[in-house]
Amino acid sequence: MLEIRNKKMVITRKAHECFGCLEEIEKGKSVVYVSAKEDEQHKSFHLHEECNKTISRDQWFAGSSLYRGCIKDALKTSEQLRSINISSIDELPFVMTKSNDKVRYRH
Ligand SMILES: [Zn+2]
Prior knowledge:
Blueprint: E1 2-11, E2 16-17, E3 24-25, E4 30-38, E5 41-47, H1 49-57, H2 70-83, H3 99-105
Antiparallel strand pairs: 1-4, 2-3, 4-5
C-alpha cells in the first residue's frame, strides 16, 4: 500500500510522467511532487495539479487504490460504465467519495 508522506508544489525542470494519468508533464509546469512510502521503500513521483486534486478529493484513491496509472484506469472505467448506460453519471465510481457507496456498488 502506498502511503503519501509529503506533497509540495514544484516547477518541473524537465518532462516527467504523471503518476496518476501517465500523461507527460511538460517542462516548466507547476506540478505536485509527492514523496511516498511503499513496502518500506521510499518513492517519489509527480502529479498534474488536476490529478492531485482528483486524488485528494476522491477517497477512492486513498490507500490501495492509489497506484501508478490509477487515474487513467478510473477514467477508462468511467467511460466503460458510461457506455453501458447507467442512470446517473454522478454515481460512477470515479466520483464517489463515500466508502459506503463503494461497497454498495461492488457486487
Ligand atoms: Zn496527470
